[in-house]
Design goal:
The chain has about 350 residues and is an alpha/beta fold. The protein is built from 11 helices and 16 strands. It has helices at about 40-50, 55-75, 80-95, 100-115, 125-155, 180-190, 205-215, 230-235, 260-270, 300-305, 345-350, and strands spanning about 15-20, 20-25, 35-40, 160-165, 190-200, 220-225, 240-245, 245-250, 255, 275, 285, 305, 310, 325, 335, 340. Helix 1 (about 40-50) runs antiparallel to helix 2 (about 55-75) and helix 2 runs antiparallel to helix 3. The mean pLDDT is about 95.
């Protein structure tokens, strides 16, 4: 049975794809259980994205691209026009699943454009073109992460402690990682680094996922409560902060997991560099500033419950924004596969897109 895998796939594999469908490592169960779920329809893949089976901006972009292929396989159409109408409907379904992370809509649009520009010979041929494009998105993401790692590794100290928030590793990407990819590349080059991972309430991506990944690849890691970061930054126990991103506006404002903004302010207050690592696909030049980025609100149950146990009194409500916006003024540099962008970001982010 043919398996669709990019070359040089990471040792941590959140996404697997073969002729029987898509398999996703259920990130809701980590670190206690490593279990893959299989999905054979685009509706199932969309629900998996919405329900956080897979998460992380690049990873959900890749997953949506594969989901588009699964949907395309089942379209019953005798003409290109009818095929595209159905494919666009599938694409809109994916875009609504998680609106903040721009990689999802970017990947969907890339497949739609590929289908629109392709000649119509048969549905099977068009599906095969879409399959190749989805695999290419996955391959490009891994290569981008490794280039980011090589570039960003130069910014980290020869010896010290790096703080990260949420999970921006192989689990959140096609492989290797963005923020964690920078750390891994620095360690591979001989730098002696330890990582402090914010627990990242309410989904505990730092405590569950970042710590799990770093333990897998042998990098020392400690988990802290989210509200302990300022204490450690002020005491000089952290030398650098590196995070990922779900969307970067044209002016350099960054949407990332809720709590990132607080860490950025604390880093600036204490003179600690704050770096963002993200591929070009995360940069949205059509969005002027962070004020224009839609912020996903999720179920209040994620805040009111932990481990299936209610932790707030009955009758109490909660607010649960999944992301916040870090203004560009708090960001030291943005690390991409095409190079490092420094302020002024409005000018320098555009330069990265020039050939």
């Amino acid at each position: 049975m043919k398996e669709y895998l990019p070359p040089n796939l990471d040792v941590i594999r959140p996404i697997l794809w073969d002729a029987r469908g898509l398999r996703l490592l259920d990130q809701r169960l980590l670190p206690g259980k490593e279990k893959y779920l299989r999905f054979t329809s685009w509706q199932e893949v969309r629900k998996a994205i919405k329900d956080m089976v897979v998460r992380g901006a690049p990873a959900i972009g890749i997953t949506a691209a594969i989901g588009m292929v699964l949907g395309a396989e089942k379209i019953k159409a005798q003409s290109k026009k009818a095929f595209l109408t159905s494919l666009r409907r599938i694409g809109e379904g994916f875009k609504r699943a998680r609106p903040t992370a721009v990689n999802l809509s970017w990947a969907v649009e890339r497949l739609l454009v590929r289908a629109e520009n392709a000649p119509w010979t048969s549905k099977a041929d068009l599906v095969e073109l879409l399959r190749a494009e989805a695999l290419k998105i996955w391959e490009e993401d891994i290569e981008a992460n490794k280039r980011m790692g090589a570039l960003g590794a130069k910014l980290l100290p020869e010896k010290g402690v790096v703080l990260t928030h949420c999970n921006a590793g192989a689990l959140a990407t096609g492989g290797f990682g963005t923020a964690l990819g920078v750390i891994r590349a620095a360690v591979d080059r001989g730098k002696q680094l330890e990582v402090i991972a914010d627990e990242t309430r309410p989904w505990l991506q730092g405590a569950r996922l970042t710590a799990w990944e770093l333990k897998k690849v042998g990098i020392p890691v400690k988990v802290i409560a989210d509200n302990a970061a300022g204490f450690l930054l002020r005491r000089g126990q952290i030398q650098t902060v590196v995070v990922g991103a779900d969307r970067i506006a044209a002016n350099g404002d960054v949407a990332n997991k809720i709590g990132t903004y607080s860490v950025a302010v604390l880093a600036r207050e204490n003179g600690i560099p704050f770096y963002v690592a993200a591929p070009l696909s995360t940069i949205d030049l059509l969005t002027g500033s962070g004020d224009d980025i839609p912020v996903e609100g999720r179920s209040e149950k994620e805040v009111l419950y932990c481990g299936g146990q209610r932790i707030a009194p009955s009758g109490v409500e909660a607010l649960n924004p999944a992301f916040d916006i870090t203004p560009a003024k708090y960001i030291t540099a943005i690390i991409t596969e095409k190079g490092l962008a420094y302020p002024p970001f409005t000018k320098n982010l555009k330069i990265l897109f020039q050939d």
